[in-house]
Amino acid sequence: MLIEGPPEADALIPLAADEDMRPPVALLAHAVDEPGRSSFWPMAEFSPEWVALRWALEHGVPARFIDLPATHTLAWEKHREREETGKAGKPGETGRAGETEGTEETEGTREGAGAEENCSGGRPGATGEGPGRGRREGGEEGSGAGGGPDVGREPGRARASGGGPEDADGSGGGEGGGSGAADEDRDGLRRDPLGTLAEVAGYDDPERWWEDVVEHRATGTKDPFAPFAALEEAMGALREAYDRDAAGHEDGRDLVREAYMRIQLRSAQREFGADGVAVVCGAWHVPALRRKVALAADRALLKGLPKVRTDLTWVPWTHRRLARAGGYGAGIDAPGWYAHLFASPDRPVERWLTRVAVLLREEDRIVSSAHVIEAVRLAETLAALRGRPLPGLSETTDAVRAVLCEGSDVPLALVRDRLVVGDVLGEVPAGAPAVPLQRDLDRLQRRLRLKPEAAERELALDLRRENDAERSRLLHRLRLLGVEWGEPAASRGGTGTFRETWRLRWEPELAVRVAEAGVWGTTVLAAATAKAEADAVAAGGLARVTALAERCLLAALPDALPTVMSVLADRAALDTDVGHLAQALPALARSLRYGDVRGTDTGALAEVAAGLAERIFVGLPPACVSLDADAAERMRRHVDAVHGAVGMLDEHAGLPPRWRAVLRVLSRRDSVPGVVRGRAVRLLLDEGELNPGAAARLMGLALSPGTPPGDAAAWIEGFVGGGSGGGLLLVHDERLLALVDGWLTTVPAEAFTDVLPLLRRTFSAYEPGVRRTLGDRVRRGPGKRGSEPGAHTGTPGFATGLDERRADAVLPVVRLLLGTNPDAADVGRGDERTGGDGRGDDTAGHVGTGDDGMSDDTAGGGAGTDGGTGDGALAGVGA
Amino acid sequence: MSVSVDPTSVKPSGTEPTDALRPHAEDAFAFELAALAAQDDRPRPARWKMSPWAVATYLLGGVLPDGTVISPKYVGPRRIVEVAVTTLATDRALLLLGVPGTAKTWVSEHLAAAVSGDSTLLVQGTAGTPEEAIRYGWNYAQLLAHGPSRDALVPSPVMRAMAEGATVRVEELTRIPADVQDTLITVLSEKTLPIPELGQEVQAVRGFNLIATANDRDRGVNELSSALRRRFNTVVLPLPESVEAEVDIVARRVDQIGRSLDLPAAPDGFEEIRRVVTVFRELRDGVTADGRTKVKSPSGTLSTAEAISVVTSGLALAAHFGDGVLRPADVAAGILGAVVRDPAADRVVWQEYLEAVVRERAGWTDFYRACREVSA
Predict the structure, then answer these.
(1) Which of A107, A373, A703, A738 has the fewest CB atoms within 10 Å around its CB?
(2) In chain B, what residues touch A407 (CB-CB under 8 Å)?
(3) Are A182 and A309 within one domain?
(4) What is the ipTM of this complex?
């Protein structure tokens, strides 16, 4: 049994019979020194290659792979332009179709229908990017003698089929490089020979053409080989045209592969006799294999091929990946459907629709047996109307939509995802060789001197050092892949951007995780990128996607960012809850900053963040009406978070003014809860957008007798509450304090008990010193109203006059922090202490500020605002 | 009081259909139907005037072996017509769903005309449709004079279709009150219509079937009970697939309406029509035309029919109060009215769309300003 596939995998064939081996699986070939370079040969349960393999193993028939060794094909990849590759697998391989070479087997019928029949198929093989439409259908399992009883499939529903060879690499035209339509035609022909045939037949959908002409036609045919013969003829005609055009500019790869296959075929025929050999390969290659070519000519073609050290193994695969047209997918549109056809003993349509009904019921849709009956009737009649002997996927889908889904495409999408494509995950026995991901990890561990140890230890990284930065990236990537080797720990000394602390511990089961993660890619980088992209698409909420974006930056996965960002933008666009948006924004703003620090390109991120901010600005005012106390408090926190984030996004011109406009709207609208209104006024005041007089006027309005006391107390909480330095504001602006004091005395007794908890919450958050000062001021009474606030009043803790000398001493530090005024440096230098520090270690100074900024931000307390008014030092805001 | 009206009784039998403002499908396309029936050699279900294949051809258009050209009645996915015809052939009731302006009524009329040769057995669903319109009414003079008898009975279109084995149409099924809707359950499942007053029943003969149309995104409709719903196969008629197709439909229809209202033709209105259609499509689909930005969809249906009315009223504005050229300001108010149905939620959707999509778009500055003005 000769199968189109890498001969290095011959040693792995026995594993296919392992009881822990469950398709879909893929043969994976990768370059030893460069795990990123790899090819896949995916096989589903119904793939001709798989059926052939299993049949051979069960019947003790020797099986071999006969395609050009992966050692050459992978080396080829190297020689080709790399840019188009990008990802690992562009394997060449692929297609296969059934074909019988050497016709009847010696054992007579034994093999008979067995494998060969199945051979069909399409190009599932490959990996390729090609949208191949894979023909599947494995075939009738050995109907013949040795093969035991027919599995009982009606022979009719043929799974025969041949298929299109689809070459992932489209070796056809691509490299020809020539211009002109002829080339394009050739390219198309090579990439999609079935499409070409279908087009000639007047079909716009090759899949449908295939079903009509091959799959359904075989019903009732006596000769199981008839479709193969016909396909061979068709391919022969195509090859004729193709090879003729190819004469001028040989691209050669197919020819080399076919030369190798011919040599293998010849030696097998010598060994087992001309009739003792069956070949499962892409129909495309059949004419070439039949051709009589001198052995020497074939050998000559194989001379001097580049080589690279390769390793092969089995890896688990999934139906979803079989279905994915690009990347590693095999381009089978409906693996679940074909697996169903292959597995169901009879009545495939009835069984299929029943499965659909079960699925829909699980999802709480009401679907009765009567529905299923009607769906079957509809599907069958549709097939008749369309002139087909049996309902295919399109008929059943139409029936499901019209009957079971009541015309809606939403449940239909579920059916497509769960059944047509399917959730099947393959399994590979533990004995299979290690996946390349593990090797890549080993390599990285060696290079970064980061040994996996079972004992827990703490690792402090200084990200300014290249080696440490790479270690950090590796750990972050592994975490994304679910390999929890390191766990971020709170840094001990300093919480700076440049420091990271990890707690490392290698558990044995992590090796299993690595093996599992092998489906995502062959290198840690590629796997983490693929996983992050998949996670983004599957992520539940907006905040999750934002967190993922942050992790992508930490793990330095620039290739995953575009996907994550577009998912993020989509989620943000559709999310109607401003709260979610507001929660997502700070993480984004943080990522932006962090990305800047790490030198990542954050252009896309900035755009998304700005878009998110815009949506929040639009949505926030309407979202702030009719809220109860808890919701209002949440909303106040959102306002704070957005305010802090907008501060961090300040380079996006236009955002801060718009945000202030939103705040102004909030501060003036009566339907907005007091706590939010108060907060908005406060933020505007801190921004310098409102002068203290205006703020006092607004406060006066909010605290006027007409306002319900509860609302007024909430306003006060919003305005001066929390850890936002509001106490100091009251200390410094007596007008405000007087307003509060005046209002409090007018609160009627019956309302006072309602207001008290709110006020207590507001004021108890103040520092003891501030509370005491406030108490003193209040005790002193509001009688001194009208005097200049904060100036010449003999307050405890403050001198009556300004001590100019001590005040001047602060200036150099302030200037150093602001880092703007060159004069300041001079002054600073004059001063012994500050000057010395500042000049001596510029970096340290810079880092120092950076750290503060970051840590505050991370704490999320609305850092920007905090410093502001409180201590009166502008530097706080700046830093 | 008998409410049910026998539609056939008002059609003057034997007269030439050409005088009618809008002839029935079976009259307007009598030639095509006859040609199809004549050349149809495939098996026909009982009492069908032609085979299912011929019905599909009649709707989708084609050329017959003898060269007769069948004009397409429905331009859209072939799948839809095939499923619809197949449903009728399998004896299941057909429910055509879709937003206004997706040719539901048109398709149901032509289906009935092709299948039964008669599209006039029609129940028009309204909020006031009584049970008599679906079951039967009484001729009270007869009833009082002679007592209950079949002579005193006034059959509904449904009853007539059952007795004759024809196709009956129910328009706007979801507008009919729920209790009246449920009358159909017996008809569709038992295929009989009992007449308890006479101790009789009308049994449907083969060939009877029912096509209902309903609007799935409208407000104020009576959802079908699941008992009734599951007696239908549902086909959703989609909105036009491409911008071009929709612009074309809108432009053509606006032109017709404009002429009947004696509006002056707008020479440069095409660009605005395209703009209106683009806005409608983007909001409806929830994604911008370039497929790169998602947007929220408002609660309104934003059907093609509404786009037509926005453009028409814009034209009227331009003609009577403007300079005769359709300008962004003329359509802005109309669009706002069509989009913002729910004052709170839809306004946010609209403003987000304006800020996130329209503001940035090259060449849309005037439109953005006009919209800002009316939205403010």
Answers:
(1) A373
(2) 95, 97, 216, 234-236
(3) yes
(4) 0.76
